[in-house]
Amino acid sequence: MMLSAALVIAVGLAVFFWPAAPISSNPAGGGFVCPVGSITDGDTLRCTDGTRVRLHAIAARESDETCSPGHPCPDASAASATTKLKELASGQTLQCRDIGTSYNRVTAICDNEAGVEINCAMVRSGTVVLWERFNREVPICQ
Question: What pLDDT, in 10s, does the model give residues 72-81?
Answer without folding.
Answer: 999 999 999 9
